[in-house]
């Protein structure tokens, strides 16, 4: 069977959608783990800290590229906008992502006296994420048309190839920047080939519709602003560490906080296959079934979080110390606090998607904006006073506050519609 045939054909679309979405989510969750393990052993703890802040910034700017459209696109079950509308809008958001990345790094290079290599690592990490934003609009269309399996297979294979190139060159040349540049080039080529193979059934005439583009930019702006500010809020402790502490401590915080994002991504691979179904339930007025499905997802988040905290309490520090070749014994308390915050991260992500489905997304911006201002006001003070412990408590408190605010929005709306 050729690779193209493998991507396009499926004997059981529902099963393959779940399995390959889970596989892709797992790889996405653990790619930073794998690369940090190698960087720590080949280039040292300081280089691992640079990778951590570069990855943080790249994932932040990725939200500009994606513009919060995936959930909106998939839940557009009535076909209000065509695929070409979403595609042209994505061109604009990716251009904005590039501009914002370059501007940010230029400013920080001066204000925080970054070395040239650190600046270049951050820039190229952002470039590495552009294919994630570009293919996402195609994969959203595949999912909207019931072919999440194609999207999940393509994403999984591309990620595996990218990680292999990055990791292999790190081991061979021990230069993070060289490995990053090569991986960015390879992942673009793989993305282009896979899209050429898979997008044929969904290709439409590339007509430009300015009104639709502006409407999508307007409709999705609250989702973009919400997702951007959500990631920014989660990253604020790392920005405070970058400003006040050392690259070595940044690396250690990155090591103990890595399991946090595993919780969020594990929740995604459970929830993403259900997104279209839950959207249909709300659209068709089947509110009790809608609430039941959302309740199941909330329980899944709680279960995943509980298992992760228990496992981390028993084995977390020895495993992380071995993986990252670093002494993390002083940071067990911070690990457990951060995992609790990871549970709130998963819950807030779920509630964010549900609020989008019921088309109350505009309120997200105000919630995230308010919490961002609060976080900026206290982050440096807390981290300077309590260092790693302060960063961990700050993160968990912010994620809990986001979840509570979302519930306060969601509960009254759903109650009046049931």
Mean pLDDT across the residues is 86
What is the straight-line distance between the termini? 49 Å
Q: Helix content range of the residues, please?
A: over 70%
Counted beta strands: 0
Question: Strand-residue fraction?
Answer: under 5%
The assigned structural class equals mainly alpha
Number of helices: 14
Query: Outline, from the CA principal axes?
Result: globular
SSE topology string: HHHHHHHHHHHHHH
Over the alpha carbons, how many angstroms does the gyration radius reach?
21 Å
- What ranges have pLDDT less than 50 throughout 5 or more consecutive residues? none
Largest β-sheet summary = none
Characterise the protein shown here:
With 418 residues, the protein is mostly helical. It has 14 helices and no strands. The longest helix has 56 residues. The N and C termini lie far apart (49 Å).
